Amino acid sequence: MPGAGSGNLAFGKETSFMGSLTDEDDDGNSDYWQFGRNESITELSLDNQLQRLRDAGLVENVESVKQAFEGAVSVEATISSDTFNDVEDIVFNDAGTSFTSGQAASSRIYAGVDYVGGTAERELIGCIPTEFTPINYTVDGMLTFSISFLYADENKSASITPSNVNSVSNATSAPHHALTLDIDGVTVTQLQSAQLSISSIARFIRGAAGPTPIDAVIAAPESTVETSAVFGSDSPSRLELAYGSVGATSPEDLVGGVSATLDVTVNGTQVSTYNLTVTPASGSWDNVINTENTEQSLTWNVDGGVSVA
Description:
With 309 residues, the protein is mostly beta strands. The protein is 5% helix and 48% strand. A hairpin with an 8-residue loop joins β17 (269-286) and β18. The two termini are 44 Å apart.
């Protein structure tokens, strides 16, 4: 059975859906990137979407016919200033900075394993993002991200394709304190957990040409921020926002949106800043009568889109 160090994982950016890979350094070769350190594949599956067919007079089906092909792959890794902006390029279809209407960003993912007796690699073609958690923060942990993709096709190989992969170097991975979260211009102190998640990013378009999708477009992205912090001097102001507005002392008829930024800076190098407008959707106080710290947890809708700088 393969052991530590036997797995390989890299991605390339497609120039168009299921098209060739980019050559950003103009050396005549396709470019490949590492997702980040502590990377893992949390799902890698395929579905032939078989349709069962029956004959009259028989109890059980007699045939299964392939209707369409679709694969799924999900990746988690630690944010790195070396490669995270390239990860954003295969999610945000407007030059890695935001979403815009039209064709979705797409990529190829190469998952390989060296096993006793050989090597097997799966080239996943036409990978489109469906869910992206660009920031997953837990106090005293590394700052991580996760992406879920659908993919349109794949090839099997007995050797590893990517070479000269743009990899992560030392002192570029993001610890938890690489994140700064500001809500309505106030830095959230004593932050215990935070997550920005985006769903419903892209979808396939199918036709009569075969079981493989023929294109991929932006679907209807929805973004959410979740925060939890030890109750402190800045907490009452966020309760007011949950009521409806600054200074509110009880729930109001309307709930207003405020600005929020999630900034990731590693060793003085700014990686990404997510600029958002957020509206509080729900909240709770936890451990109010307890020996543990009292925490204020809030869930925020993101309105007006995500902008990445």
